[in-house]
Design goal:
A hairpin with a 4-residue loop joins strand 14 and strand 15. Helix 3 packs antiparallel against helix 4. This protein has a six-stranded mixed beta sheet with strand order 3-6-9-12-14-15. The chain starts with a helix and ends with a helix. By secondary structure, it is α/β, with parallel strands linked by helices.
């Protein structure tokens, strides 16, 4: 018991730069209080003192603002930072070294008994306000962005953001600098990995336009080599201002 409490205190020092002393952590950190109360409630729950376990969990929620069902399984060195509004369901499982911020929900999507809440493997970090719904598995070391709504499994080491949550591809997060230089602005300040069909369609059109311009430029060069007169420049081209697209948004 005391070894776990010591681990809980050391974890706070590791993950919260605002922590200054052990006494401060023991007396003012609701995440610590919620974990301690849950350990007692979980013992009573598994000893078949169901009502008493639920009542202790209820009292802990009243004091800390953190609701943890006594049936939930929580590993070692789990840190709930700030904690207000955190909800952890009955069949949720949280592995060692996980971190949850305020407003996180590990909820169920079914009224049927059985496994209906998420499983967080070791070292998962869940940002403020994120909702993980259903009997999902969040892989070891994964990160869930703030306010994300996760309804599918997240693989090991991945980062999930958005509503509904999508897995970020780090290879696609940087904008295409070549296209940005050509148009005079970064493609509508959006990235191709955004989970929006309109965004993907716009990126497809921009990429196609860039490739077409390069081909036309090559054709004109070949025509000039043969002595052919290049076609006259269309007047509307000279009037086009790429920055005008951003002005419309403003």
């Amino acid at each position: 018991m005391f070894s776990k409490l010591r681990e809980d205190i050391l974890v706070v020092f590791e993950r919260d730069p605002a922590a200054r002393s052990r006494w401060e952590i023991l007396t003012t950190y609701p995440g610590i209080h919620a974990i301690l109360a849950h350990r007692l409630a979980a013992r009573l729950w598994h000893a078949n003192f169901k009502w008493l376990a639920r009542f202790i969990a209820y009292l802990a929620r009243s004091v800390t603002g953190i609701e943890i069902h006594p049936g939930a399984i929580i590993g070692r060195r789990v840190f709930i930072d700030h904690g207000m509004g955190v909800v952890i369901g009955e069949t949720a499982e949280i592995g060692d070294d996980c971190t949850l911020y305020h407003g996180v929900t590990l909820g169920g999507t079914s009224w049927n008994k059985g496994k209906r809440h998420p499983t967080l493997e070791k070292g998962v970090v869940v940002g403020a306000g994120a909702k993980i719904l259903g009997p999902l598995t969040i892989g070891e070391g994964a990160k869930i962005g703030s306010n994300a709504v996760v309804v599918k499994d997240v693989p090991k080491g991945a980062t999930a953001v958005g509503i509904p949550a999508r897995i970020l591809d780090e290879n696609q997060t940087k904008p295409d600098e070549k296209i940005a230089r050509k148009l005079g602005f970064s493609a509508y300040a959006i990235s191709a990995d955004m989970n929006d069909p309109m965004v993907k369609a716009v990126h497809g059109l921009i990429n196609h336009s860039t490739v077409t311009d390069e081909r036309i430029a090559w054709i004109l060069q070949q025509l000039e080599k043969t002595g052919a007169e290049p076609p006259a420049t269309c007047k509307t081209d000279a009037q086009f201002d790429a920055a005008y697209l951003n002005k419309i948004v403003d």
